[in-house]
Amino acid sequence: MKEQLQGKNHTIRNLKEKISHMNKRRSDADRNLDFKALDSQNIELKENVTALHEQNITRAKTIEKTPSLLTEIEKLKTQLKGKMQCVTRNTVKPKVLAPETLREIVEEARIERPLDNALDNACFSTKRS
Question: Does the global pTM surpass 0.70?
């Protein structure tokens, strides 16, 4: 009976060793997987940092250009104001046609488009003047 118990104890001890060895291998594999996952996360984070760094550089360049662009805009505004004043001062007055000339134009148009009611009204108003 002692021999049986010793045999069982020996078997139990062997099984415990196998289990601990398997756990050790599994934990080593888990560590490898964890390292691989961390490695891929590090690569992804480095890419994100690089992209953000490039954006910051672009924004810094834009901020540096802003004052010069604003002064250029002000210069263009003053130039436009000067040109707009020239245009408003040199407006052309519309010509006023003599009633006879206007009547001739309406009569010619009425011949070309006899069903146009607007021409009838225009013809009527030119005869009154």
Answer: no
